[in-house]
Amino acid sequence: MTESAATSFASIAVLGAGFALTAYVYHKGYKHMALKKMMNAFEPGDPVLELAAIGRNVPHSNSASADYWVQRPEQQTVDEIVAGDQGGHYHLFLGDKGTGKSSMLLEAIKRVDGDGIAMLEAHADLEIFRIRLGKALDYEFHEDYIGGYFSERGPRDTTALLDIERALNKLEKVALLRRTKCGKPLVLIINQMHLIRDDEDGKDLIELLQQRAEQWAAANLVTIVFNSDDYWIYERLKQLATRMEVLSVTDLPKSYAMKALRNYRTKYFGDHLDEAKLEEVYDRVGGRLNFLNRVAKSKDMFATCDEILRMEKTWFLNQCWILGGEMDDDVMDQQKWAAAAMVLATALVDKEADMDSTYDPETGHVLPTFPLHIAQQIMTRADFIRALDRQNLFSITSTAQVRASSVPMQLAFKEIVAEPGFREHLEATIKRIDAIESLGRTRELVAKDLVWGGKYEITKAKGGAFEVVLKQKEEDEEGK
After folding, report:
1. Which among 17, 41, 69, 427 is placed 20 to 30 Å from 360, CA to CA?
2. Using an 8 Å Cβ cutoff, are 249 and 101 in contact?
3. Which residues pair with 360 in a beta bridge?
4. Per-residue pLDDT averaged across 146-169, rounded?
5. Are 243 and 88 in contact, with CB atoms under 8 Å apart?
6. Which superfamily does 37-249 belong to?
7. What percent of the chain lies above the pLDDT cut of 70?
8. Nearest to 166 by CA among 145, 141, 186, 144
9. Where is the Orc1-like AAA ATPase domain (predicted)?
10. How far apart are CA 139 and CA 314, in angstroms?
C-alpha cells in the first residue's frame, strides 16, 4: 500500500509539475508573442498605405504621387512629426473637413514607408474604437489566450476603456524596446477625433489618450497625433495640455490652389488650363481641396462649381431656415437655433461689406470673422456655435475665430441675405420667438367671483392691514 501510494503521489506530482511548467512556458511565450506582434505592427509597410494607393489609383511607392501631389506649406512640418524627428510634444491637427489633413498624413507616412507608425480611425462607440486600436497595433486583447477557457472570469470580461488602457500599456513596453534599437519615438495617429461623442464616455477616452500622450511626450517614447475637424476637441484637450502643439490646416492659398487644380486636371483629363480659367474656378470654390478635386474630375468645371454652391446653400437652408411670424410654438426650440444661425450669417455678410479688402491677389479670399465670444454675443447664445461647427455650417479656427465653413458657404450666405424681404422675415421670426417666450412666462389669474359682474372693495383697516370685501350686483343679491 505504501509503495502504491508513493507511486501514485509521484505520478501526480510529475503531472502537476509538468502541467504547471507547460502553463508557465505558454504564459511567458504568449506575452512574448504579443509584444513581438506589436513590434511587427511598426515595421516598414502599412495597410493604410495600400488602401490609400488603391483609392488614388497609383502604385504604392515613395515617389508615386510626385507628379500630382501639391506640396502644402505645412507638409514639411508634418513630415518631421511623422518621421519622429520632432520629439517632446504631441500634436493636434485642426481644420475644416476637406482641407487635406489626412492626405498630408498619408503622404508623410508614405515617404517613410510606415516605419514606426500606426494609424487608426476614431469612432463614437468605445468597443469599435477598441477593435480598431487592436487592429492598428496587432494586439488581440488576450482574446486568443487559452487560459481564458479554464478561468471563471475571462480576461475579456471587462470594459472597452480598460482594454484600451491595456493596449497602451503594451505599446509603452514596445516603445521602450524599440527606443534602444532606433533612437526615435513611435508615432500613433488617431484620425477623425471629432467622431468621439461629447459625453462622459467620450471625455473619459480623450482624457485617457491625453494622459498617455503627455507622459510619452515627456519621455520621448511615443508621439501621438490627433486629427480633428471640430473645435470642441481642442477645447477639451486644452484643459490639461502642457506639451500639445496645434497645427492649423486651412484652405490652400491662391497660388497653391491653382497649382493643385492644374495638376489634378492634368492627371484626369490631360489638358492644361490657362490662368484665367484657374482663377475663375478659385473665385467660386476657394482653396478647399475636396472642392478642387471634384471640379478637376468634372468635364464641365464651372457647372460643378455652381453645383457645389447650390449644395452648400441647400444644406444651410435645410438645417437653419426660419419660419417667420406665423410659426407654431411647437418648433420654437429648433427655431431658436435656426434664427441664431441666420443672425450670425447676416452679421458675417454685413461685416464683409464693411471690410476694406476681401480678396488678396497673393493669398486669395479673405473671409470675414468674429472672435468666438463676439459670435456668441451676436447669437445671444453660447451653446449653439459648437453644434453649428459640427455640422460644417460655420467654422471655429484654432485661434477661436468664427467664420463661414468655406468660400461657397460664405457665397451662400450672401445670396440668402440678399433675397428680397429676408431681413424682415428674420425680424418677424425673432419677434415671434420673443412673443412665444413671453407667453410662456405669463401666468393668468382668474377670479371666479368677478364673472357675474361683482367687484372687490379694498380698504385699509386699523393696524395697517387691508380688508377685501366682495360686492355683488344688486339684481344678483335680490335674486338670491
Report:
1. 69
2. yes
3. 364
4. 70
5. yes
6. P-loop containing nucleotide triphosphate hydrolases (3.40.50.300)
7. 85
8. 141
9. 89-224
10. 45
Query: Residue 459: enclosing H or E segment and its boundaries?
Result: strand 455-460
**Could you tell me the residue ranges of all domains in the chain?**
37-249, 307-440, 448-479
Instruction: Kindly state the cell numbers that stand for 191.
Output: 484620425
Q: pTM of the prediction? A: 0.82
Most confident by average pLDDT, 56-65, 269-278, 309-318: 309-318
Q: What is the pLDDT of residues 447-467, one digit of tens each?
A: 665 656 667 777 777 666 777
Grid coordinates of 253: 492659398
Cα angle at 309 between 304 and 313, to 5 degrees? 145
Q: What DSSP string describes 241-281?
A: -SSEEEEEE-PPPHHHHHHHHHHHHHHHH-----HHHHHHH
**Residue 188, helix vs strand vs coil:** strand
- Of the candidate ranges 22-31, 68-77, 251-260, the one whose mean pLDDT is the lowest: 22-31
Q: How many CB atoms neighbour CB 15 within 10 A?
A: 10
| End-to-end C-alpha distance for the chain, whole angstroms | 117
DSSP state of 428: H
Report the amino acid identity of residue 199: D
